[in-house]
Amino acid sequence: MMRLPWFKYCAPRSVEEAARILAGEGPRAMLIAGGTDLVPNMKRRHQEPATLVALRGVEGLKRIANGAGLTLGAGLTLTEVVEAPQVRGHYAALAQAAVQVATPHLRNMGTLGGNVCLDTRCTYYNQSYEWRKAIDFCMKKDGETCWVATASKRCVAVSSTDTAPALIALGAKVRLVSAGGEREIALTDLYNNDGMVYLTRRPDEILTAIVLPPAAGWKSAYWKLRRRGAFDFPVLGVAAAVRAAPDGTIEDARIVLGAVASRPIVAKARELLAGERLTDDVIEEVAAKVASRAKPMDNTDLEIYWRKEVVPAFVGYALREVRGDDMRATRLRIARQALPPAS
Amino acid sequence: MNAPEKPRQKARFDTIGKARRRVDGRAKAIGQQRFADDLVLPRMLHAKLLRSPHPHATVESVDVSRAQAHRGVHLVLTGAEFPVPYGIMPVSQDEYPLARERVRLVGDPVAAVIAVDEQTATEALRLIEVKYRLLPTIASPEEGLAHPEPRIHDYGEQGNIHRNQAYEFGDVEEALARSDHVFEDLFFYEGNTHLPMEQQASLASIEGDGKLLLQTSTQNPHYLHRQLARVLQLPAAHIRVIATANGGGFGGKCDPGNHEFVVSKAALMLGRPVKICLTREEVFYQHRGRHPVLMKFRTGVTKDGRLTAIHLQTLLDGGAYGSHGPASTFYTGVLTPVTYELPRFKFEACRVFTNKPACGPKRGHGTPQPRFGQEVQLDKIAHTLGLDPAEMRLRMVTKPDSLTASWLRIGSNGLAECIEKAVEMSGWKTRRGKLGPGRGLGLACSAYMCGAGVSIYWNKLPHSAVQLLLDRSGQVTVYCGATEIGQGSDDVLAALTAEALGIDPVNVRVVTGDTGITPIDLGSYSSRVTIMMGNAALQAASRVRDLLAAAAAEALETLPDRVVFSQDRVFAGEDSGKSMTFVEAIAAAEGKFGTIASVGSYAPPKPPGRYKGAGVGPSPAYTFSACVVETEVDPVTGWITVPKIWIAHDIGRALNPVLARGQVIGSVYMGLGEALMEEQAFRRLPPKLSGALVHRNPSMLDYKSLTSLDMPEVEVALIEDPDPNCPYGAKEAGQGPLLPVMPALANAIHDAVGVRIDEVPITPDKVLAALAKKAKGEAPRVGPERFPAVPYPEPTFVLPPWEGGDGNELKGRKAA
């Protein structure tokens, strides 16, 4: 089998202790939660941390707190997120996104914080060391060139998290804790459109919680395009959240695209939708405008032009589900499984 | 050798035809089965292979000194230790366990490290310094044809052409000229790989008697045994190969693997057990999977849709080594005339070397590609002529006990019944064309062989042998070299032996796949095991039964030929009051004759074709299948959904219906994966910047294969018409049912949205591209646009049986 490189393993019991270790070890230390992303990546020598700081035993990272909204500990497994009644009841986009991450086994291990911080992906990068050596490596690790776009000065590896587009559409913030203090930023500000430096998180910071605003009046949905129903990273994710007046007039809206850039792409949904109703015409027009923001590259599964071509259809699915259409048959065809309904 | 035992006209069977738990089911279900990767021996060392990062290069030097000095390293091997080449086929001995002068693909093994553990071996690999001189890369057959230099191998037909052949059975141009219609179509079938759950693993050790033991996940221990003797320069009798239970094979474990020679050599040199487990990525480089094939069909038909002639041209992307290539090349043509009556047939086939993992046999070996082309073309013909595709096929199915234009002898033939059953189950007549927009039904058929009629190396010896040993404790042990790869061959062996002796299969101990103990069986390939091992087993069983009957008849005061074996007892004819237990009968026979044992063996009948090349295609029996696929296609995205598949398979007789259905559904699963997504695809970097040619997706995540959620319901009908050449009439089920799935899907897509996808896999982007063409009024088709000029040789010309031929080549002229 593929073997891990050698590393030191620390198992702190508290956030403070973990932050202290991180500060002391410097940038060659990495956090590990479920390990479902990091461990295979380490086997392929994408990351070779000298020290792993495990969050598994850290107290408090699995907390679910109701308040003005909902605070989710970053250490909750994706399965726990899906099963949380508050999430299913009020934050459907998150439940629909989390339940479509990978497989049941991986969801039982992988955490919400881990999925939010998921390494960007690229077919030239997510390969073994030996494979990457055969292409003389790439910009993201050990090499110079971006083989996806050889003239590109930056890495175009793809943001492949399902939960982040859903969470951004739901207005999430994240809490980052370091030995020096704590800060809370909008989740959208956690990301750079750069496949290498894709997070604004400093190496000494721990993402401890995801903070969601109250869901009253909002309705949301997440649609994922991938090859197979039981597996696979997204090649497109569409999260839509809409707040409408009782007569259907839209007051506020957020639409976020996943897997079409190195970060989740936030469309100007409010400008497009406020004051409108979700008629077929409006949905079609908005879907076309939102889709123009998608800039897929030839570095994921499935054909690049087709991936671009189907974005409006998927935006339409999400908006129609939010509108209240019965999308179960379409969902079954796309996801190959029934999902928690929009709420 | 005696003729195979004819299926007995038993009024009823005790075991055959009953759904039973397979004999190896318990161990596999509870995790007790030890696969090669599970084996551990004291003082065992671990091997890892250093593989080439270049697609094509000469090896200038290999410096292993730093690796050798690495702590924990016991041995470093290079090509210098392996002067003798190997290859599964005698005409293609073109591989070395470790490259000597040339690497031919990214992943070609160059050196091996044997160390205390995998981690240490992996570390030491990075300390080996190899100097390469890069050579131009040949990435496709078209490129190989255009660039005879540099030659990837210094043997073959010419330039980079490995095999090139042409056969013509009757004057095809003349027949096409007088046909009512001639259809010309191009098709492409992308390569794909086996993807067995078990990655190859091997453990070599030296037994107490000083001889080599290799326990390995192989489908063909016998062929491996021969190649080990050749490469290691040891007497074959000093080598023992045990085929461990394979966690799936599908053809991927038929070729000897580099790693098997490396651990064997290392164990001999070190005197310690040496184990290797390939990573999933390495399995993609070992490959030997489905050849990418470009095809051109020129097919003549009468106005009522009967075939007059087919001219088939194929171009195979062989990859870097010969493998089974000579056979694969034949198989892209030879089974074409078995399905439908075809008065004349010509096929030209060419296999080109490229700098990619070697292609070889995968479930259906060379046949799914032309089957896809022919069945899609027939659908086009039916539409053009306004015929029901099922009716058109029904009218021209081949007949039982007939010869093809190419002199293949067909025995039992249930194709018509298969078509009728698939049509009935799927509601074809009432539902086709009436499912509404975006929904459709497609039908396709196929034929496949039950074992290759000729061995891979030329000999007149049995293809399978069975030894049976009984003792007074009641133990019945059956030995055979056949290999359990998950297909159920151990269960078949137990069931046939049990049925013949009238005992419960749980009372049969099965010992298989061990060249040190079991008599030779050629291996688990070409769907040969049930029929060949089965016939050998029935012969062995009938011989001990005769001994037991003679002894029992004395005790029961009856005649030997009146003795009946059933339900673990031996009866005096129909008098159920006079009987003894089977165990008592063994003791009686042992007392009368001494130890009770027997052997049985089987060789296929001599094929009627006598021209050179007639050895590929003949089989003791053929199976037939008909399949209907239902699809839903989204006109906006091209997204494809398959709600249901119906398949009828002519199996002769289902020995264990649970296993038979499992094989059929497994075939449908694999075929649907090939149809929808599987691709052994490669990436070539911009040639100005890099010579790299790499596998696009050598992992279980990125090589897309169906998951359980993507798998539709499959309704299976087993058509049972016992074949006289087969044990109790049982034909194969492991490969044939795969063949019609891909074309049935393509035809269903056409029925749903009116576009033709003339290549596999059929993906939503291709459907959408074809729909866009349709909307613009262009030909609604996605598929290959041209067939390159291939320098096919002059064909071997043979007259079909009905034109006065005698099965020999007609030299010097074509028939008038």
Task: Give a quick precis of the structure.
Chain A is α+β, with helices and mostly antiparallel strands. Chain A has helices at residues 15-25, 38-43, 78-83, 85-90, 92-98, 104-109, 112-116, 129-134, 163-169, 269-273, 280-291, 304-309, 311-323, 328-335, and strands spanning 8-10, 29-32, 51-54, 64-66, 70-73, 173-178, 181-186, 206-212, 218-225, 236-244, 250-258, 265-266.
What does this protein structure show overall?
- The complex is a heterodimer of chains A (343) and B (816).
- With 343 residues, chain A is of the alpha+beta class.
- Among the domains of chain A are: 1-59, 2-Layer Sandwich (Uridine Diphospho-n-acetylenolpyruvylglucosamine Reductase, domain 2), CATH 3.30.43.10; 220-335, CO dehydrogenase flavoprotein, C-terminal domain (Enolase-like, domain 1, 2-Layer Sandwich).
- Helix content of chain A is 30%, strand content 19%.
- Chain A is built from 14 helices and twelve strands.
- In chain A, the strands form three sheets. Chain A has a five-stranded antiparallel beta sheet with strand order 4-5-8-6-7. In chain A, strands 9-10-11-12 form a four-stranded antiparallel beta sheet, with helices on both faces.
- In chain A, strand 2, helix 2 (38-43) and strand 3 (51-54) form a beta-alpha-beta unit.
- In chain A, helix 5 packs antiparallel against helix 9.
- In chain B, helix 10 packs parallel to helix 18, helix 14 packs parallel to helix 15 and helix 17 packs across helix 18.
- Chain B has a seven-stranded mixed beta sheet with strand order 3-5-1-12-9-10-11.
- Chain B has three domains: 25-33 and 461-602, Aldehyde Oxidoreductase, domain 4 (2-Layer Sandwich), CATH 3.30.365; 41-135 and 200-277, Aldehyde oxidase/xanthine dehydrogenase, a/b hammerhead (Aldehyde Oxidoreductase, domain 3); 166-180 and 185-189 and 289-453 and 610-782, Aldehyde Oxidoreductase, domain 4 (2-Layer Sandwich).
- Chain B is globular, with a radius of gyration of 27 Å.
- Mean pLDDT of chain B is 96; it is low at 1-9.
- The longest helix of chain B is centred in the middle third of the chain and has 28 residues, at 529-556.
- In chain B, helix 14 (489-501) links the parallel strand 20 and strand 21 (508-512).
- Helix content of chain B is 25%, strand content 25%.
- By secondary structure, chain B is an alpha+beta fold.
- Chain B has 19 helices and 34 strands.
